[in-house]
Structure formats: C-alpha cells, structure tokens
Amino acid sequence: MDWTVGPESELLAALHRRELDLVVGGFTDDTPWEAKLALTRPYLETQIMVGCPPGQQPPDRIKGLEVAVPKGRPSVAGFVRQKGGIPVTTADPAKEPRPVAADDFQIEAWGLAPTGINLHEERHIIAVAPGENRWLLRLEQFLGSRGDGVRDRLRAEAAR
Which of 54, 56, 116, 144 has the fewest CB atoms nearer than 10 Å to its CB? Predict the structure, then answer.
C-alpha cells in the first residue's frame, strides 16, 4: 500500500484520472467534486461550535467578541465572522482564556464547556474514482461497522 500526501485539489484530480484509489481527508458532502467522483455516504457528522474555558460564563452570542480559532482552519474563522465574532488565530486553542470555535470533538477533548452556539454542521465523506461502485459499497460497509470509533479516535488525537 502506498500513501500519497498532497493538496486536496491535486489529490482529487489524480483520483478523477484514476491515478489513486481513494482520497481521505477533511472532505465534506458539499464538495464541488461531487459530480466528478464517487463519494461515500457521510460516515461522521460534526458541529463547528463555540466552547469556553471551565468556570467562565458562556456567552449567548459571539457578536463583537474575540473568538479563538485553530491555526490552519480558515473556514472556522469565516463561520465566526458570519456570526459577527472576531476570529483570533491561535496555535493552542486548548489554552485560550477566551471562547474557542472548533469541531465538537475538539471542544470536548480540550475540556471546554459547550456554549450552545453552533456555527456549522459538516458531514464527512471519502472519495473514490468514478464508476467504482463495488469499491464504494465495500468502503461504506467498512465505515458503517466502525460506529463511533472514528469520533473516539478524533477526540483522542485532539487531546494529545
């Protein structure tokens, strides 16, 4: 088995040309590649939400508030802006003294208290080459048999 690491656009283009068998990443079901590739059904649903350090009074809205967002997640910063918040990029969101916007499993792993402010829902998928229906079916069976194992692994990784 060979692994290829690269930018999303290059990997998905290679998959479309059948140079790769499968592409796994942070892909969601709203991908613009939907018409050109075969996609699994969502195997994981996550919420991008706002959490607060323990003991801090959670805000009921983020309009006008500075909200920490993990470095490398520009879409999360965009969701904060849409709600009127001021995104502040940080390398270590778990140690922030202010509210943090991140995936629900990260908020939980970092010991932050959910505020009830949900910014966006994402349904995660895996892409395979077009026309690979049998491969897609086997992949979906594999993913379906894993239950919450994916979420547990993501939470464990976020806690590291």
Answer: 54
